[in-house]
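Late entry, written up from scratch paper. The run itself happened at the end of the previous shift, but nothing got recorded in the book at the time, so transcribing now.
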Amino acid sequence: MTATANGQSDERKVAKRSNLIIALVLITGSLAAELIGALLSGSLALLADAGDMVTNVTAISVALLSLWLADRPASVERTFGLRRTEALAALFNAITLWVIAIWIFLEAYERLEEPPEVEGGIVLAAGLIVLCCNMAAAWMLHRSSKLNISVEGAFRHVLADALGSVGVVISGILILTLDWTLADPIMGIAIAVFIIISSLGLWRKVFQVLVEGVPDHIDVYRLCSDMEDVEGVTVVHDIHVWTISSGYDAVTAHVVVDPSYDGDPYALTRRLRDIARGYEGVEHVTIQVEPSAEGCTEDHHVGHLQARARPPRRKLLPF
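Output as recorded:
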């Protein structure tokens, strides 16, 4: 496999795009079936699921666009290229999930007061077709969702709709067997609640990237401790660790070297870079070696980095 600049193989990138394209075809086909079923049956559950399906098509399309933009070369104006568009695409997906959920709540409220007539047989048939398509699309996207946050956003969209389709099927069965038309708006509300809950994790990841928080898999205390254990290093300070895009983390640090150290400074710098790159996903490392911290105007973070035991990380969001 040929390695790319962001540490992922070309084959993986092609696979991600292929998975997204196949999922897009499946979702577009099931959207057409669901819209026809919703119009013929008058079902809110089907209509809500179709509305969510529209956001699925948009989510996958945006994820494909973000993958293409992320591959654009860096420039003087954008030294990291357009990698951060991946997080923006995921943010767009998270926002649209909540918008569609709010719309479902409002529509369901009206239908709870005056339940309309719904054709249960059409709801059941359409729900089964859409469920099969959604499960196939979710399976395709799941393989790439752990490698890319925008793909994960699309995967969460499809997964929410797949489980929503289960609700549509249940609604169709209840209407067909018990003539309980209230099942339709109730199931619509259940779908909306699940959409909101399933998107919380995505919101947290997007927020963490956009505020340039430390990636969950990197322990800054351990990283500094490993660097300070290298012969000649006195202290690591002014360290910054953040995520540019999925699988592409950056580390910068100032390293104070003992003035009496007579080893090769270039070998020392390479050793420090290797330590940082030993952490999964770290692709961009900048190490500044200096004899003392005198004259530095940056926020050195020396106080908390001297601690050897890492305190529990506080979450910036309650999920």
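The longest helix spans residues 10-41.
(Scratch paper discarded after transcription.)
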